[in-house]
Amino acid sequence: MSTSSNIRLAVPFFMVRDMGASLKFYTERLDFKITNQWTPRDKIEWCWLEREQVSLMLQEPRNKEKFEQDGLKGTGVSICFQCADALALYHEFTAKGVDIPEPVVGNNLWVVAFPDPDGYRLEFESPTDTPEETKYSEWFK
Known about the structure:
This protein has a four-stranded mixed β-sheet, covered by helices on one side. The protein has a four-stranded mixed β-sheet with strand order 5-8-7-6, with helices on one face. By secondary structure, it is an alpha/beta fold. It has a single domain, classed as 2,3-Dihydroxybiphenyl 1,2-Dioxygenase, domain 1 (Roll), CATH 3.10.180.10. Strand 3 (46-51) and strand 4 (54-59) form a beta hairpin. The relative contact order is 0.17. The termini are far apart. It contains four helices and eight strands, in the order E-H-E-E-E-H-E-H-E-E-E-H. The mean pLDDT is 90.
C-alpha cells in the first residue's frame, strides 16, 4: 500500500440548463473565473471555474429535451464552501444582486446559503462562536 497521497481534489460537476445564465451567475455575481473550457460547436458546452482555491465544473447537456424531462437537477445537492468570512461574501454577493436568505449560525458556522440557477444549494460557511440558530439581524444589532 502506498503512503503518498492519491486522491487530491473533489470538484463539483453541475449539469446546467442554460450555460449562458449559469456563467453569468458564477462569473459576474460570485466572481469565479473560467480557467478551462470546451467549445466544440463555437460555444462553451463545458467549463472549469475557479475562485481562490475552489473549483467547480459546469456542462450543458447536448440532449436538452431529456434534461428538461428529468426535472430540476439541483434537488438534494449542496456544496459547502468553507471560508474565512462567509458574512463578507454575503455582502459581496447581495451587492451584485444575488437573492440570499438571511445568514444563520448552524453547527458553529455562519451559513450563507442560496440556490444557483439550476437549484444546486451553495453554502458559504465560516467558523463562529456565536450561539446556534442566531440570525444575522439579531447578531448585527
